[in-house]
Amino acid sequence: MTESHEAASIELVDVEKRFGAVQVLHGVSFKVYPGEVVGLVGDNGAGKSTTVRIISGALQPDSGEIRVNGKKVRFDSPIVARREGIETVYQDLALAPHLSVKANLFLNREEIRPGLLGRLGFLNERQMDQESVDKLNLLHINIASMDQIIQELSGGQRQAIAVARAASWGSRLVILDEPTAALGVEESRMVLNLIRRVRDSGVPVLLISHTMPHVFDVTDRIIVLRQGRVVAGAVTRECTLEQVIMWITGGQAIHAG
Amino acid sequence: MTNDEAQQEISRAAAPRRSRFVKHLRGMWILGVLLAMVLIFGILAPGFLSLQNWVSTSVYATETLLLAVGETFVIATGGIDLSVGSSLGLSAITSSMVMAALVAHPGVGIILGSLVGLLTGATVGLFNGIIITKLRITPFITTLGMLGIASGLGFLLSGGTDITNIPAAFSNFGGYVFANFLGMPVLVTAVVAVVSGIFLAKTRFGRRTYAIGSNREAARVAGIPLDRHLIKIYTLTGVLAGVAGLLNVSRFAIGSPTAGQNDELNAIAAVVIGGASLFGGEGTIFGTTIGAIIVSMIVTALVILNVQAYWQIVVTGAIIIIAVYLDQLQRQRAAG
Lengths: 257, 336
Known about the structure:
The complex is a heterodimer. By secondary structure, chain A is α/β, with parallel strands linked by helices. Chain A is about 35% helix and about 25% strand. In chain B, a hairpin with a 3-residue loop joins strand 1 and strand 2. Chain B is globular. Chain B has 14 helices and two strands. By secondary structure, chain B is mainly alpha-helical. The longest helix of chain B is centred in the middle third of the chain and has 29 residues, at about 105-135. The interface of A and B includes residues 95, 108, 110, 140 and 144 of A.
């Protein structure tokens, strides 16, 4: 999985971040390679969301480097990170509920009509419609109409649209922050399948989740953060749930029953 | 798992498409209310269906509609503009003062006065936008304060009296009626409404407007320049208030510091009757137009029915509360 000859899609090198007196990240380093799903796990306050916000450009590290395909980059804003092909699906604020599927897939990336109408900002609805169908077909997401309003969709369908948007624009990395937290069993399964399809399309996925069964179900590798440090990194099928929980808590594994 | 299975799995979660249908129904429903009102008023007051009443009602409705068009954009972003009426009044004063001062040169006066009127509205809107986005004061408080500022300035500039000496050419414009049927203000307002409606529905500008009102954080994360867009919208609303101010001066051949009083009430009522949600993300110019006609029709109907027209203000206020309450109910039902 982690062929060292291949350039990592994204690499964090010794990233540090402090908020005032509190040091949140103490030299975090890890890599994500093309075609893999990596789980980023850790307890509350371990530094997961700070790490995600740094990779997605919402925060800037105090020191350390981010490398994209081996090249050092600097993300001054989420827009810069997106330009590098890094897309983030945030837990709650992903979609505009009053807008259509199509409008959300193309939010702030709208296709404009050619000619004078285009210069006035007129939207090319037909083209966006066709491209939306293509984007969703690619991931086997079945939505009746691209004009359907997001708030008419189920939670799972909404999450599918959010992931599809990220996957279709994020060429280097898709970050999913707790994508199954608000979903039922069936819908979670659907989103996990979707994550596999994104990976199979070649785009690596960084999955942040508290739901260990989902992490074990879908990831290729697991990276564990504790108190702002990477305390473990392991191939998922080579470790057990108890080991991972021990790494997360820093204590002994709990033996149930 | 095969692809077929995966597809079935996802479509199994298909949500009901009812709310879309309900929304369409709501648009038609409001048109139905309008027609029913025309019918009922027509039966109750024989004069209501006259050509003369059509002309006066339609011209009267333009003032509400011009403000309501801007208000639709504002409300679609989840904001509100309480200053549109006083912005109209201030524009009426500044434009009429320029025209009155240059009454010896009516051509220059009309052009310069009109520009000053539009600029006045634009300035009020620009300040609203800057205060809301840069000082981070809520639209409600910002525009409530601006309501006072613009209205007070109108009284200060005019000394509290009407500005007369408006060039005849200008007042003839507002009073002109094509074929005894279509008042000039109606024509101007129709053009504004159609163009704005198309822009809101068909352009990136409109898409951004809805996106901001629908989910501000999603819009921000998507890279939409929130502050710039909101400033544009409040400025546009100010310009439309300026247009309404000019038409007001033109119709009455005076610039009155009380012009536009309570108009924000009518404008907001028109928008919420038209199906917009004060929570943002919704609203169409078509709906707002129906709403503006309904609000205006109540006035002329009350006059014809010999009821004191002041009741219209009471009714409009009640309509806003009821419409928002219904919207809230629908929301709770959708969430639950």
